[in-house]
């Protein structure tokens, strides 16, 4: 607790100490200073990859008010399960693209202001802590795993940029409630201070939740998916020279949820702090450093005795890292990027196992370790008239160290004491591509790339059990074993695409891709005996995904349309112990995914919109035993001005009342968000 409190204190004090110094410097050259509050401009060759930009309006105008909902407008973006961050276990919130999932860990690198947001121990993304109203934009790049993105981008990258003072306005606040009595309260204050600005934000979501257990399967111990989450952020941006600015950010959050049974409580928390120095002169640079302290706890309740069977009481972890990028002046038609990034993750787990029959402690376990990655990269974009060429290379020095697992009896007598061998190595990767602008309405692009992802501490050192009731009575116990010998995942991929803009406000794109992750980490079923299934995290030969991604955008006066469709043929390539998976589709990966949004904005601050989203059928497990049916949902959003500064906000989720199956095992299931109506007010003062 002292470690977390110390980091939290630094998070709050760092901006307040540095900001006045920056203000003194900015007084000297006030007339020449322009503060942007973001990173360096996107390199020209980003056009070589399949990129989708989501603007602030789209981030805010969703039926749920959740970030993961807004990101789903890029078809193929998904979490491990179909639940959002109100009703899923946080450790299942891994983000992925292109049907390259298969377990709950993120294969997509999610960055907030250039900083990786994945939990240092589990690899999940704390979506409930990233409020959409704090953001200015989101940029999704599918594939493209090497270069300055860093390790972990084997399925793509999601770059989130915080909003600046102009985007947020001086004061912003909102209060909205739904037909179950759940509430969402948010606010921000973003004053301009000299030539810089400061932003203070807060959000609190709470409610009794909905029933995730179907009525036919409920028991007296069943409960709604209750949630209570808050987050607060402090961000300050100030110039220290005419073309150099200092950016500081702190984030505090906590999230508590109850899943399926009374007492099955889950909590997560975090304290993040970062400093970033951005220079936009001839020698442009971007230097940042960050520290993250996270924790997680989880109580598992027996589905037969409804007693506590596991108390994962603490999982403290720390992520520390940074990045330095330099863009030297090499000519008007070139952009050269040189740099390095580093990340170290440390984490430990402490849990107690209980007897479902007696409620007494049967074992106490501890596990943990550390991983690190140091990457060196160089990338150059070269513009030759209508052609843009890009090529980049990266070398990563990775380590997996200090791994251990200890189990004792309730009285403290050791029964297992394992120390795992340290490992390290170098891994090279590259990416390259080209864009040809054939005319003002047509461009062609192609790219190839490699990348890597280290196994998480959770995958390496933590085993877990899932106990689910059978539809005909009894339970199924699924044990997933740790594997300290997991290899790093390696991406190989290429893609080709076409972009059309036949008229002002009209654009289409199509991308065909072939991505293959070698040594992909999957939960592999080893065997079954009676009501017990045994799995282990293992490296299969590969997960191979091929498909087509389509996108369309239309702007016609007050109307707009945004659509995205992905068709992915993904399969496992497996031999040896995991040969039973060969040719099968990875768990939790649909073949079809699509979304379409129609909006009407007749006047400033007026907005009406509806979104249709379809997710195809997918399998719950690696052996394709349980099939989750497809789901098509309709969401809606409306903002109606009542006053120059006050608007009425109406939202609707799953208006068609679709039954969204989020988990299915031998007839036992969980379901997702039912039909939900929201109404509230929004205050905006510019």
Structure write-up:
The protein is mostly beta strands and 686 residues long. The chain has a single domain (2-252, 274-685), classed as TonB-dependent receptor, beta-barrel domain (Maltoporin, Chain A). It is 7% helix and 57% strand. Strand 38 (661-665) and strand 39 (668-671) form a beta hairpin. It is globular.
Would you report the number of β strands? 40
Strand content: over 45%
For the terminal residues, how far apart are their CA atoms? 40 Å
In the CATH hierarchy, what is the superfamily? TonB-dependent receptor, beta-barrel domain
Give me the CATH fold name.
Answer: Maltoporin, Chain A
Give unreliable regions as ranges: 1-31
- Helical content class: under 10%
Overall 3D shape: globular
What is the C-alpha radius of gyration, as a whole number of Å? 25 Å
Main CATH class: Mainly Beta
Total DSSP helices: 5
Number of domains: 1
Mean pLDDT: 90
CATH architecture: Beta Barrel
């Amino acid at each position: 607790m002292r470690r977390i409190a110390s980091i939290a204190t630094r998070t709050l004090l760092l901006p307040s100490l540095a900001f006045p110094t920056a203000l003194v410097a900015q007084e000297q050259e006030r007339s020449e200073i322009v503060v942007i509050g973001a990173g360096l401009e996107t390199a020209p060759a980003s056009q070589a990859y399949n990129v989708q930009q989501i603007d602030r309006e789209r981030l805010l105008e969703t039926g749920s008010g959740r970030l993961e909902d807004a990101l789903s407008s890029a078809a193929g973006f998904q979490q491990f399960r179909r639940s959002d961050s109100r009703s899923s276990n946080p450790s299942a919130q891994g983000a992925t693209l292109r049907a390259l999932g298969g377990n709950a860990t993120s294969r997509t690198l999610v960055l907030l202001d250039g900083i990786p947001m994945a939990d240092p121990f589990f690899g999940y993304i704390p979506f409930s802590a990233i409020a959409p109203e704090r953001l200015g934009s989101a940029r999704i790049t599918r594939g493209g795993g090497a270069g300055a993105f860093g390790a972990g981008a084997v399925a793509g990258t999601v770059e989130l940029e915080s909003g600046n003072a102009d985007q947020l306005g001086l004061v912003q606040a909102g209060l909205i409630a739904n037909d179950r009595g759940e509430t969402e309260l948010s606010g921000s204050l973003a004053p301009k201070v000299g030539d810089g600005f400061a932003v203070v934000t807060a959000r609190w979501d709470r409610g009794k939740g909905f029933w995730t257990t179907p009525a036919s399967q409920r028991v007296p111990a069943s409960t709604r998916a209750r949630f209570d989450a808050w987050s607060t952020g402090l961000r300050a941006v100030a110039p220290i020279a005419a073309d150099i600015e200092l950016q500081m950010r702190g984030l505090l959050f906590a999230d508590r949820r109850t899943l399926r049974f009374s007492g099955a409580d889950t909590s997560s928390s975090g304290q993040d702090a970062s400093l970033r120095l951005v220079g936009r002169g001839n020698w442009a640079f971007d230097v940042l450093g960050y520290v993250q302290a996270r924790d997680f706890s989880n109580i598992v309740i027996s589905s037969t005795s409804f007693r506590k069977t596991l108390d994962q009481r603490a999982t403290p972890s720390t992520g520390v890292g940074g990045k330095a990028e330099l863009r030297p002046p090499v000519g008007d038609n070139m952009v050269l990027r040189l740099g390095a990034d580093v990340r170290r993750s440390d984490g430990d787990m402490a849990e107690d196992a209980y007897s479902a029959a007696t409620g007494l402690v049967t074992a106490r376990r501890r596990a943990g370790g550390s991983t690190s990655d140091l990457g060196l990269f160089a990338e150059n974009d070269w513009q030759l008239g209508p052609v843009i060429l890009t090529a980049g290379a990266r070398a990563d020095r990775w380590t997996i160290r200090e791994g251990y697992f200890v189990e004792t009896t309730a009285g403290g007598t050791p029964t297992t004491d394992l120390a795992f061998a340290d490992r390290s190595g170098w891994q090279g990767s590259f990416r390259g591509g080209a864009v040809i602008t054939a005319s003002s309405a047509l461009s062609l692009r192609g790219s190839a790339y490699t990348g890597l992802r280290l196994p998480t501490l959770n995958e390496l050192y933590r085993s877990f059990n899932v106990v689910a009731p059978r539809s005909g009575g009894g339970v199924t116990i699924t044990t997933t074993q740790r594997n300290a010998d997991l290899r790093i995942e390696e991406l190989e991929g290429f893609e080709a695409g076409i972009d059309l803009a036949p008229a002002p406000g009209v654009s289409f794109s199509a991308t065909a891709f072939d991505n293959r992750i070698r040594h992909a980490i999957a939960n592999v079923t080893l065997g079954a005996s009676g009501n017990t299934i045994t799995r282990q995290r293992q490296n299969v030969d590969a997960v191979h995904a091929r498909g087509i991604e389509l996108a369309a955008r239309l702007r016609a006066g007050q109307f707009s349309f945004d659509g995205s469709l992905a068709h992915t043929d993904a399969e496992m390539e497996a031999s040896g112990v995991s040969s039973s998976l060969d040719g099968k589709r990875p768990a939790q990966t649909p073949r079809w995914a699509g979304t379409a949004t129609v909006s009407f904005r007749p006047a400033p601050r007026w907005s009406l919109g509806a979104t249709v989203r379809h997710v195809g059928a997918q399998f719950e497990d690696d052996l394709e035993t349980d099939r989750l049916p497809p789901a098509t949902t309709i969401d809606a959003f409306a903002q109606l001005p009542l006053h120059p500064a006050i608007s009425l906000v109406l939202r609707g989720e799953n208006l068609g009342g679709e039954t969204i199956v989020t988990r299915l095992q031998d007839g036992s299931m969980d379901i997702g968000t039912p039909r939900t109506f929201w109404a509230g007010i929004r205050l905006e003062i510019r």
